[in-house]
Design brief:
mainly beta
Length: about 160
């Protein structure tokens, strides 16, 4: 299932981002739209590296997300601490386009947001079954922050480093 989600993200990125940033329908290239101009992405915005520890509070849960970025690709490990202190682990993959960021867990949960600066993002978290909620995240540490010194990227996902 995780490989299918990663394939879907890769396909969307390679096809101009239409599946990730514009929903169902024709691709941006088919519509004659420059993908860098789509959905409010700012092509002149400086390239930000989102690698680091991002934190958020979401519906009474504390979230710590260790992200690594390679080019326009994101891969991450998110720990969700519920109210009873239990830790739930999610692996996610995503893309960055200008100031837009979209990340997805293999089960279908999606974060679609906008960078508010180098250390802040806001957007919408949508559960796989449809309900969505606004969410804000802050980067609290830069660099590779995942336990063990870095993430093990899936083979074939994102550019090699």
């Amino acid at each position: 299932m995780k490989r299918l989600a990663l394939f879907a993200i890769l396909f969307a990125v390679l096809s101009g981002g239409a599946a990730l940033f514009s929903g169902p329908g024709a691709s941006l290239a088919q519509a004659g739209v420059d993908p860098s101009q789509a959905n409010g992405a700012k092509p002149d915005a400086p390239k930000l590296d989102l690698t680091g520890l991002w934190k958020a509070d979401f519906m009474g849960n504390r979230i710590e997300c260790h992200l690594e970025q390679r080019g326009d690709f994101l891969y991450g490990l998110a720990y969700v601490y519920n109210r009873s202190g239990e830790r739930i682990t999610y692996h996610l993959a995503g893309v960055v386009s200008g100031d837009r960021v979209r990340a997805m867990h293999g089960s279908g949960h999606v974060f679609d947001g906008t960078l508010q600066g180098p250390d802040a993002a806001s957007g919408t978290f949508t559960f796989k079954d449809g309900p969505s909620f606004s969410m804000q995240a802050q980067r609290t540490a830069h660099g590779k922050t995942a336990p063990g010194g870095g993430l093990n990227w899936p083979a074939g996902f994102g550019p090699a480093q």
